[in-house]
Amino acid sequence: MLRMLSRWLSVVFCGVQACGTLFASDAPQVTFKPTDDGLAVLIGTEEFTVLRTKADLPKPYFSPVRSAGGTIITRPIDDPTDKDHPHHKGIWLAVDEVNEVKFWAEKGKILNKKLEATPATATSPAKLALTNDWLGDNGQPVLIETTTVSFFPSRLIVYDITLTPAVEKVTFEDTKEGWLGIRVATTMREKVGGIVVNAEGKQATKECWGQPSKWVDYTGPVDGKLHGVAIMDHPANFRPSRYHVRDYGLFSVSPFGEGAYQNDKAKAQPVVLEKGKPALRVRYALHIHAGDAAAGKVAEAYEQFLSATQ
C-alpha cells in the first residue's frame, strides 16, 4: 500500500486563510508521505499527523496530532502517566452497540480495506479516502464505512462519512460511547486547567456534555502554551449531534445517543439501516489551533467548514 501511495508525495493544496477564503496562493502545501507504519500528513515541512491503518490495529486512527510549530495535542498512545481508556487513540471513528458489537470499546474490529490519496486542485483540498469494514463476531463485515478526510493548511480537518449495511439490517442502539473522537494531551485536560466552551456560550464539560451545538472547543496548556481543538457538527446531518466531552480528556461528537446524552431512556432513538435502502451520510470537522477558542478563530473555522462542504 505504501508503494501505491508514494506517487502522492507532491500533493499540493492552496489552502484556507481568512474566513470565506478557501484557496490562497501563499498558503503552505499539504503533502502525504508514506512512513514505516502509516501515512504522514505534512503541512509545509511540518508533520501534522500520521494515519495508522495496519491490519493488526483494532481500528484506523490518526496519531499523533500536532498544532502549528509541532506541539503534540493528543495523548500519547502508551502514556504511562495517563492509562485510562486505552481505546482512546488520537483521532478515531467508532461507536458501540452496532448490531450489539462494541466497536468503541474495541471489542469489534474496524479493518481498513482501501486507502486512496487525492491531490489538491485549485478548488479542492488534499484528501484521503478510506474504506473500512466493521466486522461482526463471525469476522464478516456488518457495516461498510467510506470516509473522505480533507486536510486544509489551517489545520481544519473535514470528515465526510457514509455508512452502508453489509447485512440485511444494521441497528445503532442509543449509546453515549461514540463516535468521532479525539483524546487531548494530558496537560490539556479540564481537570488540570483545560477550558471547554461551545458556540452558544456554555462553559465547562458539565454544561457542554450531551448538548447539541455548532461546535465545542477544548483548550489547554502544552509545554507552557495554550493549544486547542474544536469539533464541529454539520447542519445537514440527519439530526443534531451531541458532545461527549469529559474533564479527563475525552472529546467526541455523536448522533447516536439521544437518550443516553439526555439521561432519559424514553428519548432513545436507535438508528436502523437496511440493505438496499439509502446509506447514511454525516459530516463533521476538527480544527486544531493555538490559543483559546477566540484566538484560534474557531467561529471563523466553522464558517470555513460550511463553505468547504457546500
- In total, the number of domains comes to 1
CATH C-level: Mainly Beta
Main pleated sheet: 8 strands, antiparallel
Count of individual helical segments = 4
- Give the helix proportion (percent range): under 10%
CATH architecture: Distorted Sandwich
Rough outline: globular
Biggest sheet strand line-up: 1-2-3-4-5-11-16-15
The string of secondary-structure elements, in order, is: HEEEEEEEEEEEEHEEEEHEEH
**CATH fold-level label:** Beta-galactosidase, Chain A, domain 5
End-to-end Cα distance, whole Å, is: 32 Å
Low-confidence stretches: 1-20
Looking at the chains present, what oligomeric state does this protein adopt?
Answer: single chain
What is the count of β-strands? 18
How much of the sequence lies in strands comes to: 35-45%
- Mean pLDDT rating: 91
Helix/sheet category: mainly beta
- Taking all Cα atoms into account, the compactness measure Rg is 18 Å
